[in-house]
Amino acid sequence: MKFTEEQVAFRDAVRRMVQKEVAPIADEVDRNDRFPKELVQVYFDMGILQMRLPEEYGGAGASLTDACIAFEEVAKVSETAALMVAQGTISFILPLLHFGTEEQKRTYLPKMGEKPMLTAIAITEPQAGSDVGGMKTRAVRDGDDYVINGQKCYITFGAVADYVTVFAKTGEGRGTHNISAFLVDTRTPGFEIGKLDRKMGLNGIPDSPLYFDNMRVPAANRIGAEGDGFKICMRCLDMNRPTIGAVAVGLAQGALDLAVDYAKGREAFGKTIADFQGMQFMLADMAMQVEAARCLVYEVARVADEGFADDAAFHRFAARASMAKCYASDMAMKVTTDAVQVFGGAGFMKDFPVERFMRDAKINQIFEGTNQIHRLIIARQLLGDGLAA
Ligand SMILES: CC(C)(COP(=O)(O)OP(=O)(O)OC[C@H]1O[C@@H](n2cnc3c(N)ncnc32)[C@H](O)[C@@H]1OP(=O)(O)O)[C@@H](O)C(=O)NCCC(=O)NCCSC(=O)CCS(=O)O
């Protein structure tokens, strides 16, 4: 893993912004479960809100590696603030860029570079989480429109989004060949936001159910062909997963840094706890695990940035993207839990941010595909065409 000079300068700039804008509010945002909307403007001005938007549509055209750098830096202080970086990538840029028509790209993508804009992706339903093919939301063609009815749940940023990419059934029965994707303007009549979810962590991120009540969406807003929605959904998830790995690496590094500082200052039995070999081994293990995950995440991002020769190469990447997300998030759960242990009783209190880091770590093992699903994806590739080119 070697960053270019520009990437090092970018990382340092993000680091400075985090100290100025994120660190002072991170605990308050968690305590009050307050959406830090002031960061939307800060990120937009810095260009990291829309960083993955290609230059031809008014963005910075940043690579996946660049995005991972930003995610990692912000997550060292706050996962909530980190999830607002490159916010519209999975929900808006990736579906439109890879599956939209030229007209859709020209109409919608530049909006993201013009002013701060938030978007969401609506896949999960109360009875269809891992089993995307089991979704019940339906879109029925009616003239030049589709009429969408149904509900989604746990939709990150759904309550504050300007646009939501909604996946809905356009054919009969359970299955993965009858789902379609729609770009929905949230001012559309019939688009309703449910009560905000109360969560274990990620406080400040608005998550909520969304309800669609005879919501009429122009057929021109369907992304991709009718019935291609499942594959579009899978591809967008695959392409975004390394960023969750980067968030997990940042979170774990943040917890490790706090644990090291605390261990050097806390005294017991006449010396600092960092002087005890038991503590040294624990901190060394934490550092080793963070570094291993970081190498995996940035290697997978590098592969994506180089592009894919064919579909087989993409599938090998997708399995490795699952490894990066799964390994890094399991690691972050362990490292943040160990960081709390280093702090002892103080770590269990809300006086130090390590307990927040531990609570926030949990979601990374669940969202964007549970880590059980990721093991399934890796095993299918391993036992199928294999992981090597
Ligand atoms: C569990 C899954 C990995 C697979 O589901 P299925 O077993 O139901 O489907 P398959 O038989 O594997 O595939 C059906 C069909 O699709 C093609 N396919 C599969 N994967 C891909 C892919 N990665 N890219 C392209 N195409 C793909 C496959 O070849 C088959 O095609 P043919 O029939 O051969 O033509 C999957 O359901 C899964 O990943 N589940 C996890 C869902 C998930 O990650 N959810 C997270 C939601 S987003 C989130 O959490 C953020 C919060 S929020 O705001 O919502």
TrEMBL record:
It comes from the Bacteria. Pfam families: Acyl-CoA_dh_1, Acyl-CoA_dh_M, Acyl-CoA_dh_N. Residues 227-383 form the Acyl-CoA dehydrogenase/oxidase C-terminal domain. Its cofactor is FAD. Gene3D superfamilies: Acyl-CoA dehydrogenase/oxidase, N-terminal domain, Butyryl-CoA Dehydrogenase, subunit A, domain 2, Butyryl-CoA Dehydrogenase, subunit A, domain 3. Keywords: FAD, Flavoprotein, Oxidoreductase. Residues 4-112 form the Acyl-CoA dehydrogenase/oxidase N-terminal domain. Residues 120-215 form the Acyl-CoA oxidase/dehydrogenase middle domain. InterPro entries: Acyl-CoA_DH_CS, Acyl-CoA_Oxase/DH_mid-dom, Acyl-CoA_Oxase/DH_mid-dom_sf, AcylCo_DH-like_C, AcylCo_DH/oxidase_C, AcylCoA_DH/ox_N, AcylCoA_DH/ox_N_sf, AcylCoA_DH/oxidase_NM_dom_sf. The keyword Oxidoreductase applies. Belongs to the acyl-CoA dehydrogenase family. This is Acyl-CoA dehydrogenase family protein. The lineage of its organism: Bacteria, Pseudomonadati, Pseudomonadota, Alphaproteobacteria, Rhodospirillales.
